[in-house]
Write a structure and sequence with these properties.
The complex is a heterodimer of chains A (317) and B (730). Chain A has 317 residues and is an alpha/beta fold. Chain A has a domain of 217 residues: Aldolase class I (TIM Barrel), CATH 3.20.20.70. Chain A is 46% helix and 10% strand. Chain A is built from 12 helices and 8 strands. Chain A has an 8-stranded parallel sheet. In chain A, helix 3 packs across helix 5 and helix 6 runs parallel beside helix 8. The longest helix of chain A has 18 residues. Chain A starts with 24 loop residues before the first helix and ends in a 12-residue tail after the last helix. The mean pLDDT of chain A is 96. By secondary structure, chain B is an alpha/beta fold. Chain B folds into 3 domains: 242 residues, 3-Layer(aba) Sandwich (Aldehyde Dehydrogenase, Chain A, domain 1), CATH 3.40.605; 193 residues, 3-Layer(aba) Sandwich (Aldehyde Dehydrogenase, Chain A, domain 2), CATH 3.40.309.10; 224 residues, Aldehyde Dehydrogenase, Chain A, domain 1, CATH 3.40.605. Chain B is built from 25 helices and 28 strands. In chain B, the strands form 6 sheets. Chain B has a 10-stranded mixed sheet with strand order 13-14-15-12-11-17-18-28-22-21, sandwiched between helices. In chain B, strands 8-7-6-9-10-20 form a 6-stranded mixed sheet, sandwiched between helices. In chain B, helix 21 crosses helix 25. The chains are: A alpha/beta (317), B alpha/beta (730). At the A-B interface, helix 1 and helix 2 of A face helix 1 and helix 11 of B. Chain A: Belongs to the DeoC/FbaB aldolase family. DeoC type 2 subfamily.
Chain lengths: 317, 730
């Protein structure tokens, strides 16, 4: 289901691409407010965009009490994210989520549960969520997850490097992680809620892309503030600028904080307006979420049946 | 019927057009509209058709107002005014709140109507158009509630005439009339001929909410109707329209001389510095094209630092390609139609002429709708300040892009314009941005933002964009002056009278003294204090001369007191912050007008002159003053005092001679920013006519006992506010 996509070849560290960046916070806030107000979706169009959101979801469980059985249940939902009658009502035959995202020790269970589905398994790694483990251990964790069968690795960066503007340390760390990821696509989690400013978000995003990240991702879901639209706008503009300089097409993954169907639409509108239609495919856009799917399913059932839906009628994730 | 599966391929937004059924039903019910006078619609006689500019379809027929209709409306407004003003403040406040609530309740009806009538996208008819109309009434209700406490004994301008521009008609109407109603005044409104329906709907809502009959009157019509209103016996006139129409209104209103606020065309610059958030600046250009770029504040001249001109142009071009131009009723439309076919044709011709001169027009938007007053968003590259388009109001989604090398050059280019509506400044350097904001000759400066409006900070205008304050305080009439004591006429002095030829020299000297405006207010206060002290030292001597010439010796003491107060005021107040949005500093910065020409009354030869000159210079203006012919020696004394007190040369030049003739020379001098004339009504009317070309504010206080005049009122005439918007957020 998920298309293969050319990897980001990376670029030698070049701070001149980001050191002079100016990001005006009120202007970014005004832009995202305007954007979502100006582009509305109704009826079939809204339903289609919600289905598309499902295609882009990295269905996620990252909890301390995860078990193999719990992961298997999540994978079953990823294979069949909508009840059959909803799918039929929408006139669709097949639909899966973009990926399933788990801790490294759960990768094996997820791979088994998804066998034959074509759904990739993504694993967080590198001492998720804080990332404050010795680098060799973090790299070893990546290798472990890849060996277990993860096709995508979501790494976390060392926030201190950003806060101290130590760009070469940040670049070296991410480049080493990219190398350890091997054939697996690498998503760099910037933990934007801990970077302090939109300018820092832009800088960290640019270093991550120069170091070879295939995707840039907002958050672990564990920070006090996770994905927001202004942060996402800033990161999307960074990947646009990186693409303009290198020709590489980088993906974007907001994570944490997207809980409602309305959120799913808002972020897709952002991608469509700032980047265009290609960034509405799972190859270039993912949503990291756990509870979002439930709300989308309710909305879609209502679209199909005309009744307000009850989650008790939908399969648990 | 398109399927979900198909949409999943294209990921299009789909249609989102609103169906304004309620509006169509309302239009059908009314059919042909009369004027709204004294709380009811009149029978309609001579009619004109109102078109939807997006389709050309006729929406309704409205009456073409005649001078008789204006007279009837004016009579209704006069009849209602005393009763309206006599209501308790709380009752008037409650009436305005009720109006705001009802507008909010009818939001989708009103927005739909405004969109059909003007071609503005429905989203913008909701916000800012309707949202700011609601806000204007709510804000004005607050002023109404505080009136007695804040302004005890102040009467309003009784009847205000309002002429509206077509863009954002709800906001335009509410912004003009809400403060007037709050103050206790009544209004006669002539809406724009292209877009009269929103005003008629609001009038109907006024009646529904129980606003007393005659408080709000609407007369529809055309340019002649507007001029008939301008020429009527009004106490105040708020006129919005083109600059040419504004000149005509100035002439038409010259005889009655109502307090005048003009809101005319613009050609507003956006200055993009190398350290700007370029994406934000690009969005600013687009956001500035609210109402299709037809507001005077819309960014029409993009001035971009050479260092970032290339990436800025590329980003802006890419952004323009994403604009959706089309059906104004569609929620996704960014740009709708212009207000009329005539406007669209005019703008297309202007662009074509500029292209013929060698400019490159970038219009990256997909094909436009085939019919209707649509103009593609256009960026014109390769123009120069000398290109006529850069001196022409565009009134559409069009801008030129020129480059600058240094901040000084940016300011020079921005200020090289006959207009002075608004500007936006894009830089992350607060030191630079605030300096640029201070140096721009526009009434509004948006720093890292654009097209933000709020009733708490009413927009001003300068140069050919207009003049005169709006807002609540402007709706209050000046306190009635105290009449002069029985004239001590005094003998004519033999001081040498200078001819008209000396005026240009005096103006030139005044221009050279521009440093006075840049001085700290504390520094100016010191000089004024020194003037008071110098006068005190020579008190006895000057008093004796006045007495000997048959004037009141007490003028000296009154003048000293005036100088002390002017010093105190110069030192006290430089503007204030307006309560607008969250995360927003809205600074109302008091600025001088420039060079003020002053012609003072004959009575009180010392005080009558000083009462105008001292507040004017306290506010940072330079003046060229024509003293009383009755006793020019008083002026000579004052001149000596000013010089020995250390007032820099050129700040105040006194030119003796035939007052009314010299005043005409001042009226005809374009470097004179404002004219104050305290003399005969006939000359006052002539001066108002004479200044129609240069569009300078003319203030004509009647001859009076200046010892009783409130100096703050004079100071208010000597200042204009610049509204500086600074959104903040880490």
């Amino acid at each position: 289901m998920t298309q293969t996509h050319p990897r980001n070849p990376g670029h030698p560290l070049d701070p001149s691409w980001f050191e002079q960046i100016a990001v005006n916070t009120p202007a970014a806030e005004a832009r995202v407010a305007d954007l979502t107000a100006r582009r509305g979706l109704t009826r079939e169009w809204q339903a289609a965009w919600l289905v598309n959101a499902i295609r882009c979801i990295d269905l996620t469980t990252l909890a301390g009490d995860d078990t193999e059985a719990r992961v298997a249940r999540l994978c079953a939902k990823a294979r069949r994210p909508l009840a059959d009658h909803i799918l039929e009502g929408l006139g669709l035959e097949a639909l899966t989520t973009g990926a399933v995202c788990v801790y490294p020790t759960m990768v094996g269970a997820a791979v088994r549960a998804l066998a034959g589905s074509g759904i990739p398994v993504a694993s967080v790694a590198t001492g998720f969520p804080a990332g404050l483990m010795p680098l060799p251990l973090r790299l070893a964790e990546i290798r472990y997850a890849v060996e277990e069968g993860a096709a995508e690795i979501d790494i976390v960066i060392t926030r201190a490097h950003v806060l101290r503007a130590d760009w070469s340390a940040l670049y070296d760390e991410i480049a080493a992680m990219r190398e350890a990821s091997g054939a697996a696509h690498m998503k760099a989690i910037l933990a934007t809620g801990e970077l302090g400013s939109l300018a820092n978000v832009y800088r960290a995003a640019m270093v991550a892309m120069q170091a070879g990240a295939d995707f840039i991702k907002t958050s672990t879901g564990k920070e006090a503030v996770n994905a927001t639209l202004p942060v996402s706008l800033t990161m999307v503009r960074a990947l646009r600028d990186y693409g303009a300089r290198t020709g590489a097409r980088i993906g974007f993954k907001p994570a944490g904080g997207l809980r409602t169907a309305k959120d799913a639409l808002a972020w897709q509108i952002l991608m469509r307006e700032e980047m265009g239609r290609d960034w509405l495919t799972p190859a270039l856009f993912r949503i990291g979420a756990s509870s979002l799917l439930g709300d989308i399913e309710r909305q879609l059932e209502q679209h199909v049946t005309g009744r307000f839906a009850s989650s008790s009628r939908h399969a648990l994730a | 019927m398109v399927t979900v599966k198909e949409i999943l391929e294209t990921m299009d937004y789909g249609p989102g057009a609103e169906n304004p059924a309620e509006v169509r039903a309302w239009l059908a019910t009314h059919g042909r509209f009369g004027h709204f006078i004294a709380g009811a619609f009149t029978a309609s006689s001579a009619v004109r058709a109102v078109q939807n500019p997006a389709t050309g379809a006729v929406l309704a027929e409205v009456a073409r107002g005649s001078a008789e209709d204006i007279a009837a409306a004016l009579a209704a407004a006069r009849a209602a005014q005393a009763g309206w003003a006599a209501l308790p403040d709380q009752a008037r406040a409650e009436a305005l709140h009720a109006l705001a609530r009802q507008l909010q309740k009818r939001a989708s009806f009103l927005a739909g109507l405004a969109t059909l009538d003007t071609g503005t996208p429905i989203r913008e008819s909701r916000d800012p158009d309707l949202a700011q109309a609601v806000r204007a009434f709510q804000h004005a209700a607050g002023h109404a509630a505080l009136r007695g406490m804040d302004h005890p004994g102040r009467a309003p301008h009784a009847v205000t005439g309002v002429v509206l521009a077509p863009a954002l008609p709800l906001m335009g109407l509410a912004t003009a009339i809400a403060p007037v109603l709050a103050a206790g005044g009544t209004v006669v409104v002539v809406p724009a001929p292209e877009a009269p329906l929103a005003a008629l709907a609001v009038a109907e809502i006024c009646a529904e909410t129980g606003l007393p009959a005659g408080v709000v009157n609407i007369v529809t019509g055309d340019a002649d109707t507007a001029l008939a209103l301008a020429g009527a016996d009004l106490d105040r006139l708020i006129f919005a329209g083109t600059t040419e129409a504004g000149r005509a209104a100035r002439r038409a209103s010259a005889a009655h001389g109502p307090a005048l606020s003009l809101r005319l065309d613009g050609s507003s610059p956006a200055l993009v510095f190398p350290d700007a958030d370029l994406d934000a600046a690009v969005e600013g250009v687009v956001a500035g094209w609210r109402a299709g770029g037809q507001l005077p504040s819309a960014g029409a001249r993009l001035l971009v630092a050479e260092a970032v001109a290339e990436p800025f142009t590329a980003r802006l071009t890419a952004r323009l390609a994403k604009l959706q131009v089309g059906d104004p009723l569609a929620r996704g439309s960014d740009i709708g139609a212009l207000v009329s076919e005539a406007e669209a044709t005019r703008l297309a011709a202007l662009i074509a002429a500029t292209e013929a001169e060698g400019a490159v027009a970038l219009r990256p938007v997909d094909p436009l709708p085939e019919t209707g007053a649509f103009v593609a968003p256009t960026l014109l590259l390769g123009t120069a300040p000398a290109t006529p388009l850069n001196a022409t109001p565009l009134r559409g989604p069009v801008a030129t892009l020129m480059t600058f090398r240094t901040p000084a050059e940016a300011v020079e280019l921005a200020n090289a314009s006959r207009f002075g509506a608004a500007a936006s400044v894009w830089s992350e350097n607060i030191t630079l941005a605030t300096d640029i904001a201070a140096r721009l000759h526009t009434a509004t400066v948006w720093i890292n933002s654009t097209a933000i409006f709020d009733a708490a900070a009413p927009a001003g205008a300068r140069r050919d964009s207009g003049f005169g304050a709006t807002g609540f305080e402007a709706a209050l009439a000046p306190r009635p002056p105290r009449a002069l004591p029985e004239a001590a006429t005094g003998g004519l002095d033999a001081a040498p009278a200078s001819g008209p030829g000396t005026i240009p020299g005096a103006v030139e000297a005044a221009q050279k003294a521009a440093g006075w405006a840049k001085m700290s207010s504390h520094g100016r206060a010191q000089v004024l204090r020194s003037i008071a002290e110098t006068l005190s030292r020579r008190h006895t001597e000057i008093a004796a001369r006045l007495h000997d010439a048959g004037h009141d010796a007490g003028e000296v003491a009154a003048t000293i007191e005036l100088a002390v107060r002017a010093a105190a005021l110069a030192d006290a107040d430089a503007g204030h912050l307006a309560a607008t949005g969250a995360q927003m500093q809205t600074l109302l910065r008091a600025e001088p007008l420039g060079v003020i020409g002053i012609a003072s009354q004959n009575a009180q030869p010392l005080l009558g002159l000083a009462a105008l000159v001292l507040p004017a210079i306290a506010a940072g203006n330079r003046v060229v003053a024509i003293p009383a012919e009755a006793f020019p020696a008083a002026a000579t004394e004052l001149a000596q005092v000013l010089a020995s007190a250390g007032l820099p040369a050129g700040v105040a030049t006194l030119v003796s001679g035939p007052r009314d003739a010299l005043a005409s020379v001042l009226a005809g001098h374009d470097e004179v920013a404002a004219l104050w004339y305290c003399g005969t009504p006939e000359t006052a009317a002539r001066l108002r006519t004479d200044t129609a070309a240069s569009l300078k504010p003319v203030w004509c206080p009647v001859p009076q006992d200046w010892a009783a005049a409130p100096i703050r009122a004079t100071l208010a005439e000597a200042q204009q506010h610049k509204t500086i918007w600074l959104p903040y957020g880490a």
